[in-house]
Fold RNA pyrophosphohydrolase.
Amino acid sequence: MSDLPYRRNVGAALFNRHGQVLVARRADQPAGAAAAWQLPQGGLDEGEEPRIAVMRELAEEIGTMRAEIIGELGDWLRYDLPPELLGRSLGGRFRGQEQKWFALRFTGQDSDIRLDLDPHPEFDAWRWADLADLPGMAVPFRRAIYERLAVAFAEFARAG
């Protein structure tokens, strides 16, 4: 499986006016799973610009585009799927994901966040969390990326 490519992807660290980041609980995880929370993210379509894709993904996954980009991680970050998910997750066609991450400031109200707009929602709950807590909420194979984001986007994790 190591000859499989990485799926290109964008991710959104969406900060509220209190400096907290939006995390959403994956609907396909067992209730109460400790590491079922993640940031909104999704695939980059062929020829799509990452800055356009991140806004599209927000609309698809959390039902709103009420946000503005305030930061961007310069590097593309990669993670590999664990062996038990290879050939099953991501359509079985990828070894992991290569991600471009953005920090965004949420410009709407909490009521603008709507997980119920998609007939097959990826998430079943959401909440605001402290950025420093993010790595501990993630599945193990995403933790290193979330640790990097917690450092790189720390300047946005303040009230403003």
Summary: The chain has a mean pLDDT of 92. Residues 50-62 form the longest helix (13 residues). The chain is about 15% helix and 30% strand.
